[in-house]
Amino acid sequence: MKYGISVTDTSEVKRIEESGLQLLDKLVAFSESLNELATFQSPRGIIFHDVASATQLYSTVPLPAYTSRDLIHITPLVETWKGIYLSTTNGVEVAETYYSELDMDDVAVIAAHELTHHVDFFHADFEELDEENMWFEEGLCFYIPRKRMLSDEKFNSIMKVEACLIDRYKEQYGDYALDRFGESHGEESEYASAFYDYWRSTLVVDALINRYCDQRVEKMIDCYREWVESSRVTNLQTYFIDKLHISDEEAKNLWLS
User: What is the DSSP letter of 90?
Assistant: First the structure.
């Protein structure tokens, strides 16, 4: 994959490139693994940024990781992401411990999340996701890289961290269904408000795969494909509830209703 560098502070060029190349090696390895699961159209390249370049020059998105015009944009610096995630811990000890030890694998998962949006089974351009059903794509795009890039121990750790953070922020941001994805962000400027529905979506995707798909992501993808082929006659949550025989109580617990 081709790469470029954009910085507002030219003294950071060497550090950004060195970290970017480490991240790129991991992303290329993941792309080979992803191709075993589904075909995808690779983006034209990846741009490595400092924070100001990513969030002020190329975009006004407050998080320095996104895809635009078929290019992945990300800051590859571990300490930048460590600071971002530590700002969300709100006294949750397991989160503080995990994020204090953040490493390049965690940053690579963020880049791989962007790449996974390009797989062929998603029914629409991910930049034009319908809000009602986007929770599944966003959750799956974190689940797949974590499962394929992290050790089982690290995967279980980050899932536990995010479950604890959901509990901590639930009263503040609400317990609404996932078809209202993004509602917590609203006018809030703190990172936790932006992450809240990503945490919940990833947790639900993991639960659906473990409890209803024999722990096989392929079975979950097949179910999603069937929904797409049905011309999406119902919203995705209703389809999963019916197809997977999810009880009313469980659907509510999983924010599907």
Answer: T
Q: pLDDT tens digits for the chain (257 residues)? A: 999 999 999 999 999 999 999 999 999 999 999 999 999 988 999 999 999 999 999 999 899 999 987 899 999 999 999 999 999 999 999 999 999 999 999 999 999 999 999 999 885 554 455 778 899 999 999 999 999 999 999 999 999 999 999 999 999 999 999 999 988 875 556 899 999 999 999 999 999 999 999 999 999 999 999 998 988 888 999 999 999 999 999 999 999 99
What is the pTM for the complete model shown? Answer: 0.94
Residue 205: which residues within 8 A CB-CB, separation 6 or more?
136, 139, 140, 142, 143, 220
- Retrieve residue 236's tokens: 């995705």
Q: Are 194 and 185 in contact (CB under 8 A)?
A: yes
Sheet containing 71-74: which strands, arranged edge to edge?
3-6, 45-49, 71-74, 65-68
**Contact criterion met (CB below 8 Å) for 198 and 88:** no
